[in-house]
User: Fold this.
Amino acid sequence: MIDRLSAADARFLSERIVEFNSSLVPFTQSPPFVPIAYGFKDGRGDRLGGITATVYCWKGLCIDVLWVSENYRGKGVGSELLRAVEDEAREMGCALAHLDTFDF
Assistant:
């Protein structure tokens, strides 16, 4: 029977695949998942952009979300956010990065 998973069940699946992966190729970092997040605000404190990422298991960087308010796009804010995450990941020993993108 196929059924919809609860959040707890989804976590259970994630934990099992992490166990399986580490049994085949031991992780080269501890803890195995390290979140990194940076944001951009204007002078009033309004959030105008941000980036979230994870350094995972074998010192790989995965960019999860990169968003910049429309008024600040094309002005280098996204590049600065990406640079901040990449610099921190490099300091942690990362040598690879990946992200998914799409275009409308």
About this structure: The beta strands are 33-41, 47-56, 60-68, 96-98. The domain at 27-98 is CATH 3.40.630.30 (Aminopeptidase). The chain has two helices and four strands. The longest helix spans residues 7-24.
